Amino acid sequence: MNGPAPLFGSAMRERPTNVPAEQALLGAILTNNKAFGRVEEILQPEHFYVPLHGAIFAAMRTLIWAGNVADPVTLRPRFENDPLLPIDMTAAKVFATLLGCMVGITNAADYAHAIRSAWFRRNLFDVCAETADLCCMPGDRPDSALMEMLESRITRIASGSVEIQPTVQIGDAIGQAIANARAAAERGDGLAGITWGYAALDRMTGGLHAGDLTLLGARPAMGKTALGLGIAVRSAAAGNSVLFWSGEMRAAQLGARAGAAWAGLSTLSVFTGRRYDIPPHADTSQREPLAEYQWRELEEGEHAAASLPLRIDHRSGITVAELRTQARAMKRSKQGLNLIVVDYVGLLSASTDSRSFNLTHKMTEISKDLKNLAGELEIPVLALAQLSRESAKREDKRPELTDLRDSGSLEQDAATVLFLHRDHYYLNKQLGDGNIPRNDRETDEAYSARCASLIQRTRDSKGKASVFIAKNRHGATGGCALQFQDMTTWFRDVDESENGPAWTITAPEF
After folding, report:
1. Which residues belong to any copy of the SF4 helicase domain (predicted)?
2. Which residue among 54, 105, 135, 261 sits deepest, i.e. has the most Cβ atoms within 10 Å of its Cβ?
């Protein structure tokens, strides 16, 4: 039940300020420049409410950083005719007033915190006031746009309110690394992060690292959604709480893929309830309904998945701010949050403020926001990405880092960049219906040899996939092999049985 509205609304409220703290701090620095060392990691010029105070702080900082003295004598000439000066004040009077407000340098840090707190509350006040105005005004802005604007601006304020973290001495940093290594060794899995769910990827990377943005790129039809879902499901089966965002598939479609993998069925069988493991009826061309044992296996998959700490968000076209809201709610819950999988980054929307910019600018913003989200929640974020057509034009179709062009700063922001590739897809297209085109001036012998080689390579590549690690801040680059089951669209490690379980639960139910 809503309570009564405030009697005067926000009409009697003033924007938060702390001008006395600004004056006392500036007076302390003018008197003794050592006071600046106590506040330089806390304050920026824009944190001051009075613009002139911010300009004086910036000028003092410039002088002190250059090794010079910042006092009324050195500063006054810079502000003699400054347009920020009040009409009835001279620079000499301003500095005299500030010196008169000086209390001492001991409390400089306390004044700085008070100034920064007022700045934070002032910005929050302005955003909330603007949002309140928009809520009360008729217009064509949908509710989602108002929510996005509020979330985006509050997030930016919050990121600016976090003070610079203290520096760490190199010996302490090595000590922390050793402690992390001992903890990883004691876990027995040899991982520095959380499992991918695939032993080959774990061996290559040491797991998905907390605070990192990891990028998995592929061309269409390579199976990036299938691998992303496999990673989410298998990592959840190992006891990690996972949020899977899908921008192009509904939750039921993803469930169909996971169910098909568990039951060993074609995904079409799960969508239609019909058998694709046997030919259709000769007379009617109709396919038989699934057998009872197949329905039971699907239901077993449902029960096996019911114990997984994996949540699917299938809202289309959301922003990173909206994804952050969902992720932070999970992080705060009893279940927690250990991994976010984004499928795929090109389907996320930029903030309202950036929608008028070009694609590269939008992708840079999204990339930065995903990287910040990983750091803020201290969990890995795995973002799937669709590569440009350049790799498909090359004779060797294997993706390269240059195929990430037009993707903003994804390559720079990601700690690890991996590419998924399946030769069979391209070889099978080349083979077509078996009528392989003949090259000009190609002899019968050369043509037959080329056809035989193509047919053999297509057969040999069936069911095989490669993941190439093109960038890895934590270790080596290189490739690893996976097997791909075309019927179930599911990836497995190469030493796994095709008939084995699609995932194995190794952690207690959440």
Report:
1. 187-498
2. 261
Cα distances (Å, whole numbers) of residue 15 to 9, 120, 122, 152, 154: 14, 11, 6, 21, 16
What order of strands is seen across the sheet that includes strand 490-493?
310-313, 242-246, 339-343, 381-386, 213-218, 416-421, 464-472, 478-485, 490-493
Cα gap 75→59, rounded to integer Å: 7
Both tokens of residue 252?
């039921």
Distance from C-alpha of 215 to C-alpha of 409, rounded to nearest angstrom: 11
The model's confidence at residue 353, banded by pLDDT at 50, 70 and 90, is low
Q: How confident is the model over 301-306, as a mean pLDDT?
A: 89
Q: Comparing C-alpha atoms, which of 108, 151, 239, 107 is closest to residue 510?
A: 239
Phi, psi of 261 (to 5 degrees): -65, -40
Is 309 in contact with 319 (CB distance < 8 Å)? no
Region 76-104 average pLDDT: 88
283 versus 2: which is more confidently predicted?
A: 283
Instruction: Tell me the backbone φ, ψ of residue 209, rounded to 5 degrees.
Output: -90, 135
Domains for the chain: give ranges and CATH numbers.
19-136+145-155 (1.10.860.10), 192-492 (3.40.50.300)
Structure tokens at 328: 């932070």
Distance CA 419, CA 402 (A): 12
Query: How far from chain centre, in Å, is Cα 176?
Result: 25
Say yes or no to pLDDT of 4 above 70.
no
Q: Which residue has the tokens 């590739």?
A: 421
* Distance separating alpha carbons of residues 14 and 23, to the nearest angstrom: 20
* Rounded distance between C-alpha atoms, residue 79 and residue 68, angstroms: 17
Task: Tell me phi and psi for residue 159, to 5 degrees.
Answer: -65, -30
Q: Helix, strand, or coil here: 420?
A: strand
Would the pTM count as exceeding 0.90?
A: no
| pLDDT greater at residue 183 or residue 282 | 282
Query: What is the rounded (10 degree) CA torsion for 8, 10, 12, 14?
Result: 170
